[in-house]
Amino acid sequence: AEEGVDEIARELGMSTQITAITQQAMEGKLDFNASFTRRIGMLKGTPKAVLNAVCDRMTLSPGLLTILPVIKAKGFKTAIISGGLDIFTQRLKERYQLDYAFSNTVEIRDNVLTDNITLPIMNAANKKQTLVDLAARLNIATENIIACGDGANDLPMLEHAGTGIAWKAKPVVREKIHHQINYHGFE
Q1: For the chain, which has fewer Cβ within 10 Å, the N-terminal or C-terminal residue?
Q2: Is residue 102 within 8 Å of 122, Cβ to Cβ?
Q3: How many CB atoms lie within 10 A of CB 187?
Q4: Which residue spans within the chain are E strands per DSSP?
Q5: What confidence tens digit (pLDDT) does each residue in 118-173 have?
């Protein structure tokens, strides 16, 4: 799947500036909180209709529609733990009948994106803590957790999971995570 914030920027003709910031954050070269706040500030004023249009165009990882029913039939719980926007993750949760979605909430007022971010920002530490808390609530042992991620902000979560998978990940993630999917989707 695409990076939602980058796709909004592309729609607005601002992709060069925002994608560069996203890339640096995903590579661990920029503080995630500061980069997220900066990118959202640059997108302030975006109409909700643009957000919806971008969400409608976003694609799933190849094979995900095949594997989701299989893992759900086996009793797995599914969750998105994302440093992106809840307008995207909640829609994905509903569309694909996922069990949970955790991400960043940015206020939309008068059908326009503001720069009012609900704290805490879903950064690396909060992604891991969300995974820990969810597993505890569901009584799932750490060794039974499978997590996928691609950016530096996913590393603590991937390292905590019983099986962390670097999925088409940045080099900093591939260097640290043994299980990897680098060239294909989930098919």
Answers
A1: C
A2: yes
A3: 10
A4: 79-85, 100-104, 106-109, 112-117, 146-149, 163-167, 179-181
A5: 999 999 999 999 999 999 999 999 999 999 999 999 999 999 999 999 999 999 99
Comparing CA positions, the residue from 22, 8, 19 lying closest to residue 151 is 22
Q: Rounded to two decimals, what is the model's pTM? A: 0.93
Structural domain count, the chain: 1
Contact 164, 158 (CB under 8 A): yes
Cα dist. 165→23, 93, 146 in Å?
19, 21, 7
* Burial class (CB within 10 angstroms; exposed 0-12, middle 13-18, buried 19+) of 110: exposed
Cα radius of gyration rounded to whole Å, the chain: 16
Torsion angles phi and psi, residue 113, rounded to 5:
-70, 130
Contact assessment for residue 147 and residue 130, using Cβ atoms and an 8 Å cutoff: no
Domain containing 28: what range?
Answer: 4-181
Q: Is residue 187 part of a domain?
A: no
CATH of the domain at 32: 3.40.50.1000
In angstroms, the CA 30 to CA 16 distance is 16
User: Is residue 186, in this structure, part of any structural domain at all?
Assistant: no
53's tokens: 């249009």
Name 163's bridge partners.
146
Determine the Cα–Cα distance for residues 102 and 89; give it in Å rounded to an integer: 7
